[in-house]
Structure formats: structure tokens, C-alpha cells
Design goal:
Length: about 180
């Protein structure tokens, strides 16, 4: 669906299928939206109590990179987490990296996180919601606690090259070597 300048692709991480992959490919190829978001339940990059969803990561993230998806919105982990920008070295169609935003602070107990992962930018552990505003080439996020106070802010400015992008292929090499999940 589209909302303003943004297009949202909603996927089912609990039962991915060939039909869903084909739908995602067609949906992203047809979109003319300025900003692209993909969302599902389990995070492909987890720095918390649940492991990374490697199946979604290895199947769908190269596709999302080829179509220049800007952000992946997920939950499952009971905290807020933002990744560093992630770029796919071997996906030449990717012209800008994406970030993953975990917003799972809406019900169950808040959970800790591990800041040592390659992709880790920052995280917070408290009940929250994430509000995202888009203005031109800039996406701004506010992490709002249960009392309505802004506890964190983040920004993605597509007009500036990211300085700290992490290569997806390095993450996968580390996973194969057993250093990350």
C-alpha cells in the first residue's frame, strides 16, 4: 500500500513462499513511490533475545537491496533497535543502503540487547512506539515512551552518502564463521 510518498510492502516471515517472493518482486518493480519500506514480524538482524531470522535475511534482503528499499520495519524483539546502514556489495542495482528498525516495545517485558553485532547502531529497552516523518530526502524517527516523551531520535538523509555502512556480505561471512547470528 502507499501512504503519501511512501510504499509499504508487508510480508509474512512466519511462512515465506515462492508466491510471496514473486509478489514482492512484482510489487517493488511497479512502485513509483519516493520511499520504500518493507515490514514483517521477525528481524533479519537481531541483537536481542530472539535470534536473527536468517531465512528472511538471505532470501529477501538481496531483493530489497536491488529495489532500493529504504527501511525494514520489524518487531518480535521487545525493545527498540536501529541498525547501521547496510549495503549489498554484489547487488549493483542498490544505490543506497537500508536500515532496519525494530519496534517491539508495545506489550511484553522489555528485553536487553547486545551492542557488539556488526550491524548494531543503537537500542533502547522500554515500552515505546516509533513515529516516522518524511520530508523530501529525509526520514526522521522519534522513539516515544508510554508517557509520550521522546526518548530517542534518528534520521536517514538520502542526500548524503552514509559514512558507516556495513557490507551485507561481511555479515553473512561472519555468520558462516559462527561469530554472529
Amino acid at each position: 500500500f502507499d501512504y503519501g510518498d511512501a510504499h509499504f510492502l508487508v510480508l509474512d516471515s512466519e511462512s515465506p513462499s515462492k508466491a510471496m517472493y514473486e509478489f514482492a518482486e512484482k510489487d517493488l518493480a511497479q512502485s513509483n513511490a519516493k520511499w520504500l519500506f518493507a515490514t514483517w514480524h521477525r528481524p533479519p538482524f537481531s541483537s536481542s533475545h530472539h535470534p536473527s531470522d536468517v531465512r528472511m535475511r538471505t532470501t529477501y534482503l538481496p531483493l530489497l537491496a536491488r529495489h532500493n528499499v529504504d527501511a525494514i520495519l520489524v518487531g518480535h524483539n521487545h525493545n527498540f533497535m536501529l541498525t547501521k546502514p547496510i549495503r549489498h556489495v554484489y547487488e549493483k542495482q542498490q544505490t543506497r543502503p537500508y536500515v532496519q528498525i525494530v519496534s517491539g516495545g508495545g506489550g511484553a517485558y522489555p528485553a536487553d540487547f547486545d551492542s557488539s553485532d556488526l550491524w548494531f547502531e543503537r537500542a533502547k529497552t522500554f515500552y515505546h512506539v516509533v513515529a516516522i516523518d518524511i520530508e523530501g530526502e529525509v526520514m526522521r524517527g522519534r522513539v516515544i515512551d508510554q508517557r509520550g516523551r521522546v526518548q530517542d531520535r534518528f534520521e536517514v538523509d538520502r542526500s548524503k552518502p552514509p559514512t558507516d555502512a556495513v557490507p551485507y556480505e561481511l555479515i553473512e561471512l561472519e555468520r558462516i564463521l559462527g561469530n554472529v547470528n
